[in-house]
Structures are given as structure tokens and as C-alpha cells.
Amino acid sequence: MLNQKLVEIIKSTVPLLEKHGEAITTRFYQQMFSNHPELLNIFNHANQKQGRQQRALANTVYAAAQYIDNLSEILPVVKQIAHKHRSLGIKPEHYPIVGKYLLLAIKDVLGEAASDEVINAWAQAYNVIADAFISVEADMYDQAANQKGGWDGFRKFVVARKVEESEVITSFYLIPKDQEEIADFQAGQYISVKLEVEGEKYTHIRQYSLSDAPGKDYYRISVKREAGTANPDGIISNYLHDCVKEGDCLKISAPAGDFILNTNNDKPLVLLSGGVGLTPMLSMLKTAAAVQPERNVTFIHAAANSKVHALRGEVEELAKRGNVTSYVFYDSPMDEDRINNRFDVAGYVTRDWLQENLDTNEADFYFCGPVPFMKAINRYLKDLGVEDERIHFEFFGPKGSLED
Ligand SMILES: Cc1cc2nc3c(=O)[nH]c(=O)nc-3n(C[C@H](O)[C@H](O)[C@H](O)COP(=O)(O)OP(=O)(O)OC[C@H]3O[C@@H](n4cnc5c(N)ncnc54)[C@H](O)[C@@H]3O)c2cc1C
Ligand code: HEM
């Protein structure tokens, strides 16, 4: 426990740290990676370059510091991050490294403004926050390894089937190399894939949502090829598309994540996806159809056109059931899409459309897609009076803000 004086110092200096947030986090990562290059095997380099991860980690430390005397208030946030950490293999011994370089960066950037008293208070605060993460993660490691079919760390899976779902999305059906059981998962969860790519100095780890229903003897991921336009091509998605063949092995960690379908609720369910964001939503659709056959489900998918529209057959099959309704939005339909009636609405999902077509007073909403898509959906739902408790979403990257 920290004493009252330390708590006051920490809370009163949070704004100062936030003000210098960018400078502190940039310095922190530079120094940490130059002294511990092995950590570049775990961190996502593209997120680093875009600054997404820097902000996520440091902002969470500051946010946690505001609740330093009552960390249980932010337990849901800790758990969400801990899922990601567990799936990546972050261990207790990593925490002192992050703590050391974060404090050094605070000292360097604040200079005179950071007295010994302030630095000492932050060192203690960091330890309290780190202990909270380590303890939540210990339970998760235990659960991942000791559940039925579970395992510790990364396990080898064979690509049993590789299926092209659209011009940009390909599915990989993964079965364990040891032919033993696999852990079950909850619809919406993801796995981490660890790859050594020829010519790359470091290993790369990426998350992929499980796109099929739970309860099978395989896991399925469906990966979009991230072709760079102004930026470099995505490393792992292109490697998976171009180089990984049926029969090859992938190392994956046990399913993780707190974006999960609540099947105890029988209120109408609305699943919205943009592009490859359909992967967790499809798993949820299949799950709801299997375990809550009476539940009213609306599946809304937005894509550019039929060329990039993946897995439509699986949705159409379920939409033959009376209580599942599917809507397809194309923002750039082709002539043949119009001729063949391949979509329901031309353009983007709008607030008015949601208002006219959905039960916004009662339904539970889950969505995933590109950040602009998620921001728009979030704004429309809020506008239509949907409370936070009924809004659930997943980021395909470090969690950010959906507020503009
Ligand atoms: C929980 C979760 C679930 C996910 N589920 C899925 C899923 O089901 N299917 C799926 O396809 N993806 C999913 N993702 C995304 C996936 O993890 C990868 O991020 C994605 O495949 C891209 O990885 P990559 O290695 O190909 O690209 P990276 O090499 O990581 O690059 C990512 C992007 O950054 C850009 N970039 C690279 N370098 C720079 C630079 N210097 N400056 C600016 N931009 C740069 C690239 O052009 C690319 O668009 C999920 C992510 C999370 C967190
Ligand atoms: C108290 C200390 C820490 C805090 C507050 C913290 C916070 C965060 C946050 C907010 C994220 C983004 C989660 C998401 O939404 O996806 C994250 C991801 C991550 N964290 Fe931590 N973290 C801490 C410690 C560590 C340590 C010790 C390591 C390992 C050295 C680590 C490695 C990572 C990695 C590799 C990611 C994913 C990065 C990416 O994909 O870009 N973290 N962490």
C-alpha cells in the first residue's frame, strides 16, 4: 500500500506527465529497445511506427495512477490488456524493464521538474500497477494452460486447409501438430500467431480473431492481405497469403480476449462489421444461431464490393433461418453486383438507416472494422440513445478512443 503523501504526489503530477506524454513515451521506447533489442521480437513494429502502442502503454500507466489507491476501479481495463499480454507471452520479469526505462524517460524529459521525491513516488506507483497486471496475468496463464485442451506459450498447429474467401481475404484452418485436443474459446476471441519470416531480423507476433464457431476440432483464422499504398506492405498478412501453404506449421497461443458474445442475454442482437472486421462477428453469428436459436439477430456487413466480400455464403446460409436477418452494404458496387443483386444498400451505413431498421431501444450491439467505420457506428448508436452497456467493439490493433 502507498501512503497518503505518495498518493498525493502521484495524482498531482499525472497532468505534468500527460502534458509531456509524447516526449516521454518516445524516449522510453528508444532507450528500452536500444538496451533490450530482444523485446523487438514481441512488440509490433508497425504499431510502434504509427505511435499507437506508445500512447496505449503510457496513457494506461497515467490513467492507472489516477486510481492508484483504488486499482479495482480499473480492473476491466487491466483485464483487457492482460488478455493481450498473456497471448503475447509477457512475463513478470519483463515488468522491471518497462518500469526502469519509463522512469528514466520521465526523469530525462521532466528534468528539474522531476524531484527525487516525485521520481521515487512514481517508482512505487509503477510497482503497484505492475503487480496488479502480473497477478491478473498469472491467473490467465494458469487458466490457458490448465483448461481442457489448453497449453502454455506457443503451440505448433498445421495448416490443414487454406481457402481463398475473397480477393483479399484467405482463411487458414489450423489443427494441432500433436493431434491432441484443443482449447475451446468464446465467440469473439483471438489467437496470436508467432512467425519467423526469412530476411526479417525479429520474430513477429500478430493477433487474428477466430472466424468460425467454437466447438470444432480446428481453429480458423481469416486474414486480409494488408497491401501498403503509401506505406510498406504488411509483413505477416502478406507472408501468410504468399508463403504459408497447406501442411506448414504456425505457432499460436491459446485463445484470448474479452470481446465476447454474451449468450445469457436474449435481447435482439445486432452484429456490424466493416471489411475483415467480419471475422469475430461471424463467429458470434454462428454461436448465437447455435446456442440461442430463438434470438433475433441482425448481421450487417459493409464492404467495397463483391470482390472483397468474404464468407458471404456462410452468412447467407444462416440468414435462411427466420430470426437471422442479413444486410449487405457496398460502398463501391460493380455493375455485376447490381445486376446480380449482390447487396442490399449502396453506400455507407448511416444513422438514419440504423434508426429505421433496427430496434435501438433494446438490442445489444457488437461491431468491428476499420477505425473510421467504428467511430461512425459508435457515434450513431450514441446519438440514437444506445447506452454504453449495450455497445461492444473490438479494435484490430491497440485499443484507442472512438470519440473524435
Ligand atoms: C484482437 C485483434 C484481432 C485481429 N483479427 C484479425 C483478423 O481476424 N483478420 C485480419 O486480417 N487481421 C486481424 N487483426 C490484425 C492483424 O493482427 C494484423 O495487424 C494485420 O494482419 C496486419 O499485420 P501485417 O504484419 O500484415 O502488417 P504490419 O507489417 O504489422 O503493418 C500494419 C500496417 O501498418 C502499415 N505500416 C507498416 N509500416 C509502416 C510505417 N513505417 N509507417 C506507416 N504505416 C506503416 C502497413 O502498411 C500496414 O497497413 C487483428 C488484430 C487484433 C489486435
Ligand atoms: C504496467 C505496465 C504495462 C502497462 C500499463 C501496459 C499497457 C499496455 C496497453 C494499454 C497495451 C495495448 C493493449 C491493446 O489494447 O491491445 C499493451 C500492449 C502490449 N504490451 Fe503492455 N503494458 C505494460 C507492461 C508491458 C510489459 C512489461 C511488456 C513487455 C516488455 C509489454 C508489452 C506489450 C506488447 C508487446 C503489447 C502489444 C503491442 C502491439 O501489438 O503493438 N507491456 N500494453
Write up this protein:
The structure is a single chain. This protein is of the alpha/beta class. Helix content is 41%, strand content 18%. The chain has 13 helices and 12 strands. The strands form 2 sheets. The protein has a 6-stranded antiparallel sheet with strand order 4-3-6-1-2-5, with helices on one face. A 6-stranded parallel sheet has the order 10-9-8-7-11-12, sandwiched between helices. Helix 1 (4-19) runs antiparallel to helix 4 (52-66) and helix 1 packs across helix 7. The chain is globular, with a radius of gyration of 22 Å. The mean pLDDT is 94. The structure holds flavin-adenine dinucleotide and protoporphyrin IX containing FE (HEM). The site of protoporphyrin IX containing FE has 24 residues, from helix 4, helix 5, helix 6 and helix 7.
Using brief descriptors, characterize the structure shown.
single chain; 404 residues; alpha/beta; 6-stranded antiparallel beta sheet; 6-stranded parallel beta sheet; globular; binds flavin-adenine dinucleotide; binds protoporphyrin IX containing FE
